[in-house]
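Entry 14. Ran structure prediction on the chain below.
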Amino acid sequence: MSMTRTLAATLAFALAAGAAQAQTPPAQARSADPVDQLLSPAPTTDNPPPVNDGEAYHRADDSEQTPEELRITRALNDEVVSRNQLVENQEQAERIKHEEIVAAATRARLAYEEEARRADAAESDWQAEQARWQAERARWEADVRACRAGDRSRCVPPH
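Output, structure tokens:
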């Protein structure tokens, strides 16, 4: 949005410059050296200069402008419209790119969460299997000890 404001300010400045140029006195009445014009003291008046608070701009009617000013105004307006369209297109492309990045990040997060669930389930299965194996081993060791101690009912027949 700041580029749009910059373009609008540039257009307003160009239009104001064109209006000021149209109001300058003829060349013979002006000083020949632009540096002399810049360094010469400003004429004193009893009225202070008007304050431009940004709200004082009024567009001159087309009939009050020279053909050159109208051509410049149209060219500047076309440039502003063109740049505004360019900025809008860039913003749209960036919005689409952002949405694609967010969608890819969401897919990656969901895939990660699914993989974490699978890993947790596999870990739980492994722990349960490990607990079953340890219980069976403990029963077998108890049976072997009982068999060696003379309890033949706990002895496993050979295969």
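Residues 42 and 48 are 12 Å apart (CA to CA). Will compare against last week's run tomorrow.
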